[in-house]
Amino acid sequence: MAARSDTIAPRHRLRHRVSAFARAEDGSFVILTLFFFAAIFLTGGVVVDLLRHDYQRTQLQTTLDNAVLAAADLDQSLDPEGVVADYFAKAGLADALTDIQVTSRINSRAVSANAELSLPTMFMHALGVDDLGGAAGATAREDIRDIEISMALDISGSMGNHGRLGYMKTAAKEFVDKMLLDGNGNPIEGEVSINIVPYATQVNAGADILAQMAVTHSHGYSHCLDFSAGAFRTVEMSPTTPYRQTAHFDPYPAIPDRNDRRFHDRVSEGRIQCRTDASSRTLFVSDDRDALHDKIDSLQYGGNTSIEIGTKWAIGLLDPQMRSAVAALPDIDEGFRDRPFDYDRENSMKVLIIMTDGENTTQLSMKPAYSGSNLSDIWKGYDGSYLRFSVQSSDPSYYFVAGRNEWRRDPVGGSSAERMTWAEVWAEMPLAWHAYYARAEQVNSQYRQYVANDWYSKVLDSIGPNEKDDRLTALCSAIRDRDVVVFTIAFDISEGNSKLLKACATTPNHYYNVTGSQINYAFASIAGTINQLQLVE
After folding, report:
1. Where are the domains of the chain?
2. pLDDT, tens digit (0-9, with 9 covering 90-100), for 35-47
């Protein structure tokens, strides 16, 4: 019996141990289950932290992108740095903004900004990660590529002194190259257009442009316009606005011997108010380097100085109302027939450059009654091979023969004589010859000088320097109300005499007072300011 009991006892102990082992496994499964649950929870927490971080990072980058784009807008009048800061403040990210850089030039603006993010973690700190950081950066840049330039260049007589015209030609051609060639010397096509407006007493606009305008008192001898005082109070130049054509006349005394009454002194090109030489003619809306260089090389000095007229034409050729007239010109490139652009067109810029070596001087203009197609009291006829001019008196049956000091019942030439228009009169004879031989000699000798002088005042208007300065001041004031960048160059003139130019420039930094070869620096500086800048970021 004892032996059996001993056999049963070990079996009981085995069952006990197996049961204990089983109970011990149940505890391990619980621990393992808890471990897996904690791992899943922590993984989900990490995902939550990462999603929060990604959302914040996306918001940061979006805010940064929008901020720099708004700040780089060239139409943005607010301070660029303030614009960026305001975007971040409104997004609740003001503390994230670390750096703002603004580079502004006359035809571009680049804005760069950087921001840093630090997000406290909710779950990852259990892994020893207390926060998630990140950095973002953005750069936006807006460039103006379509540029319209008008250059009003003084070619008055004083430009022949001290080599000024030569210096100006060299500088102006280099300016053209800087505007029309890229950094590798390749042409920039279809972006930059240049008007060259040479001016002296007047601006020779040429027949083609005047044919597109509402010109009164017209003639075909020369092609300038007399602007009214009111025309200088606006930048506008419209093809439908009536403008009086400048009379083609030689106003200055040119009679060496009044005992020599022969008509041999014709109108002198060097003395007429509106020059006709091709070198003085305006060149419109071009990016042809050869044509622009040829125009500049051809310039010749002569005449008085009318800065306000040169400026009026130069700014007028930037006025969008002239678009139809410019488009109708025969030599305009097809790509430029939509110029001048509207003032508010995006990504475009209008630039006006005014260069002079002196002050405004006197301008003479013919009164309307003695201009254009109005009939004169002068008859033109031939006495054999000699050209004669007969002045019809108040008694239409008598004619005074100019230069012959004789009266006749009929004009020289009889029925073949032709009555002249005033435009034809001034194209044939200088005003001085006309005043003395056609008018003064009709009276006794002691009154002749008086009659001649009186005739001058009867037919001529004189616009003096002070009035011309007032017109320029008014025009510059009107330009400031438009989106036009104005550079002025005072060439070889004193600081005191260049106040008008300084006041006309967009800012004092847009005004240059130079002498001699320094004009190269002025034009180079202007080109450097407005030249096309390549986007590198």
Report:
1. 12-143, 154-341+463-530, 380-457
2. 565 556 556 655 6
